[in-house]
Input
Amino acid sequence: MDLEVTLKEAGKLSRLTNRTFQFDPKLGTGFYAANYFLKTNQIVKNLMPGHSVTMQFFQRSDDIMVCGLDEAIALVYTFAHYPETLTIQALDDGDVISSGEPVLKITGLYENFGFLESMIDGILSRRTSVATNTMKVLRAAHGKPVFSMADRQDDYHTQTGDGYASFVAGIRKVSTDAQGLWWGGKGMGTMPHALIQICDGDIKLAAELYHKTFPDAPITALIDYNNDVVNDSLMLARHLNGKLAAVRIDTSMALIDHYFDDKDTSGFDPHGVCKELVFGLRQELDKAGFNEVNIIISSGFTSEKIASFEAAQTPVDMYGVGGALVPLIVNFTGDLVNLDGKPQAKVGRTEIPSKRLKIVSFPIV
Output
């Protein structure tokens, strides 16, 4: 497929169009809208029509990467009544924002778009949370690639939007085609533990079957199945004789690898994927002449955990991250702040000026 996203000179994304997003038609019927917005829309349409309002969206944290703006704008253009009459100002997906900064303003007749408020809040909150989580993970990784394994952390319907949000923040390696749908990416990966299990625990056989089926693909082997990472990595590297591209350690925090059976672990926590295990594996691979075999690690990695590995210069070539990318950390609020060209908002809210917002041209097709 052709990529619908191109990079601007500043590294930001061009606006995605409403051809990109596959909206459920029920969004236009109010099925997903908060009921009191539907009732308000009916009241205004029937008894108080013709008032121009400005609705602005903001959140309350600093150092946040906003995302979901293109999707929200496409939603408005798709389901608002007479969208060509609306004035929309927005930042770009990927902009870094501060607490209280408006990211989107919509001006027009309330009855034409007001019922979309809660859906816009949800889009911005989800996409911005994932983009911000991804930004923090990538910062911690200091330029090393990160592989998104977030497909297994939430309902499968979230994969496409989450994958796009992670792409906006900088991730290009994802585990499913759904995660890459909006930006043209494809899922990657080699073998799960299930393949090794079906091979009765024989890692060599699993790798052979993978290579036989995908002879042109590099082999990355999950190597913690027997909880003997170093010995199994060396065994597999020798067996494949130059065909092993990487090993991935995914050891549970409930386990201590057999590498430490004869070692003093009093000075550190040897559970799970620890720094000392990675250092030990790298040392033994290099000693055996397998310098070309990369080390990928996963299992519970957060931005904080990655930062600690990087601070220790742990010889990691790629991080696999799942749950740390998807928890919601941002909540957007939509407020009406202007009525017929005059300030009008609830106490404590007012229209926030912004020099960064840009007029969004209509139509976006």
About this structure: Confidence is low (pLDDT under 50) at residues 1-13.
